[in-house]
Amino acid sequence: MFFLNENIKAVIFDLDNTLYDENVYIAEVLDIFSKKYSLNFDKNKFIYNKDLRNKSNDIFSFWLNSINFYSKEYQEELFELYQNISCQLKLYNDAKILLDFLYKKGIKIGILTNGTVKAQKNKIKCLQGILQYNPIIFYARSLGKDFEKPHVRAFEGILNIIEVEKINVLFVGDNPYTDIYGAKNFGIRNILVKRERLDDEQINSDLVVKKLDEVMKLW
User: What is an example of a GO molecular function annotated in this UniProt entry (predicted)?
Assistant: First the structure.
């Protein structure tokens, strides 16, 4: 049976869709853009459409094409907004509960995230309350796109600054490939948070939870 104990000295989290809902962030970008160009955009409908990432890796191109409004210039404008937008993001409630628990126990908290460094730094800036946990943050893209998760260098990067041995680390993420495969390949314990159904994806994580606060029961 999978369990955690006093040997865990650090818990490293993925950022997007693990600690907060990235659809909310993207919806803010699209809302500003839509208002500028007088486009109809239902922010709430977009936020609750959890299938969007399965349809396209380039969400802005996909969205622009879906409303017959695509141009390279508009795509670039959206990406610029994505890197610089000012908004307020909230931690998932279950994420906040777990972070509070870990922080009070004196366990180091890390964040390992893929994506352009500028955009990911902006998300951290917008994510209310995250800095109170003094997270050690490593932006995998700083190594180059080829070395983002699941590459071992991404995991090595954060372990070098968090200064905890592999055996004492737990990784938590929502993506079976970049997060879970990456963590397992690197040799650290891992938990997949399965907030939404993952159709036809093989899950080989050490443990699967639906909400992060379930992790506390394992201590």
Answer: metal ion binding
Q: Name residue 209's beta-bridge partners.
A: 193
Whether residue 45 sits in one domain with residue 15: no
Tens digits of per-residue pLDDT, 99-138?
999 999 999 999 999 999 999 999 999 999 999 999 999 9
> Are residue 125 and residue 165 in the same domain, yes or no?
yes
Q: Which domain holds residue 68?
A: 22-83
Residues 128 and 155 reside in one and the same domain: yes
User: Which residues fall within 8 angstroms of residue 55, CB to CB, at 6 or more apart?
Assistant: 62
At 34, list the tokens: 């839509």
Give the C-alpha separation, 95 to 103, whole Å.
Answer: 12
Q: Give the global pTM.
A: 0.94
Q: What is the pLDDT of residue 6?
A: 67
